[in-house]
Amino acid sequence: MDTTPGFPTDLADVAPWQDLSAANLAAFWESLVRPMDRRRIHWDDAWAVDPGCANPFPNSATLLRSLAEADAGDLAARLNGFYGAASGGPWMLWSAWPTPDLGPWGFHLAGHPPLMVRLPGGEPPSAPPELRIVEVHDAATLVDAERALIEGYPAPELQPFRPGALWDTRILGGPLRIWVGYAGDLPVTTGMAYTDERVTGVYVIATLEQARGRGYGAAITARCMSVDPAKPAVLQASDLGQPVYRRLGFVEVARYTVWFRPR
Predict the structure, then answer these.
(1) Is residue 8 part of a domain?
(2) Which helix (H) or strand (E) holds 209?
(3) Is the same domain home to 102 and 157?
(4) Per the omega criterion (within 30 degrees of 0), is the bond before 262 cis?
């Protein structure tokens, strides 16, 4: 009987994790736009989505492989053509690998967030007793998750909060899973998970500022990463989230390169 897991187990071997994370991230961004018939495009080397959001993050392109210096101009031209074809907010380019300098084509370096991985195994911590975590399953809970994200991340371009600023219920029911955590009746934290054949990607963890430091972010992350306990979890960490993720067993294996591009 073949007992080899369907995922790499060596965290020191970076290349497979870069490939897996990039593919999952590209599919995650698409899962937020395809059901609502928003703009998207597939190339062999990159996927891009453009819901036309005022915040740059939903308007994201993802490299599927390392970008060579000789190919940078061609990629930049294709992306600038795709995003320039419609009105909307600025956009992002995500690469799990180091990239050439894209400044000559109007890009601005946004940072190098760590790619973090958690192998299966171990018990996630229990949620604080006052935190009630529910899976988003209807319009009301989706609005609560959207509010927690926009106010907790925060996304000032989308404030004051307006329901439906990002999504509607068409995004529910597929491989994308969303949770929202309540303290009393107030939605205070949210997170998403996208599971493919080999890994679970954990995304958009956000907690309201006044609710931080109580273990809510760790609890919602644990719920997301446990959607399929047999698979590793991958994420791109913010500076604020890194200590939380390390306590949950995530290990940094590489660094993303993220570019920002105004329209």
Answers:
(1) no
(2) none
(3) no
(4) no
